Amino acid sequence: MKSYWQAFWTLLFPRICLGCQQTLSEGEDLLCTTCRFDLPVTRSWQTGDSVVADKFAGKIPVASAHAYLKFRKGGKVQHLLHQLKYNNEPEVGALLGRLFGVELKAAGLTADLLLPVPLHESRQRQRGYNQSDSIAEGLSQVLQIPWSNQLLKKETATASQTRKTRWERVQNVANVFTITQPESIRNQRIALIDDVVTTGSTLEAGAQVLLENGCREVHIWTLATAL
User: Fold this and answer.
1) What is the pTM of this model?
2) Which uninterrupted H or E stretch holds 154?
């Protein structure tokens, strides 16, 4: 009887792929099989050619820096990130985090702790969640690395980075992050987790405060990188 009602409910309200907006088939979740295979994966962990690492070269030491997907304006990845950040679809972050985790695990990349880049509490109250938390949760499930959203805090609300120059972005996020329990990160290999990296100024500021508080090394893993 339960199966009957599930089928009836699906007929009335079909589940839609968040990538292409087509109806999902049985066994598919959030993304259809075609969209999963069509994701523009960077594979920088295999090629060694990381656009993300280049953003931090000469600025701050990072042990590894990778993005799972290539972000292009108007593309599928932008649409998925919009669903994640603004349409109350945090499970998208968890799904893509798990897919990314499979790749990182196969490449032998690891850390001691995952820290999602935090939102200021006012922004998080407005949105209802931090999209980077769901990404970290998905990565954690596959990599078996603990994650925490309590150790790295954003103490100052900042303006949107979207239309700012590189220098304006750096100034906008300078000194906005704090570590609540320095002893918990000391001598640890920390992976900073975020949804998308553009200039890298926010992640650079987060990595800087981690290193200043005694973490052994910083990795930067994001869902996407702007090209």
Assistant:
1) 0.87
2) strand 152-154
